[in-house]
Amino acid sequence: MGKHLLFLIFFVCVFLGSQDTLKAQSSVLGSNNAAEISLVDIKVFPNPTTDFFQISNSLNIKKVVVYNMFGKEVKSFFHYNNAQHDVNDLKTGMYIVKMMDERNKVIKSVKLNKNYSGV
Known about the structure:
Elements: H1 2-17, E1 21-25, E2 34-38, E3 43-45, E4 52-56, E5 63-67, E6 73-78, E7 85-86, E8 93-100, E9 106-114
Antiparallel strand pairs: 1-2, 3-4, 4-7, 5-6, 5-8, 8-9
């Protein structure tokens, strides 16, 4: 029963913590004004995956952390433009991918489906 309760609490925190938009400093515009960035444009692909995933529109993402469905961190990556994050060694199943900024603030969380590679 304890694992199920932790699982439920984890998902409530993940989904209630998500937002459709994020107010952030706009370094792209070169100003100190807050800009609204659409989180809908940030995508994890391919999803489902077998070997790796990438992130589109990831300008403000500095770190990527992969969690299993029990909330345990299983992989962590420093992120850069066009990076391919290797998940080939992970077991088949569902994972949560959290994308973070330079202050380790979560920008977006998504579910990642890891399929069997067949190798």
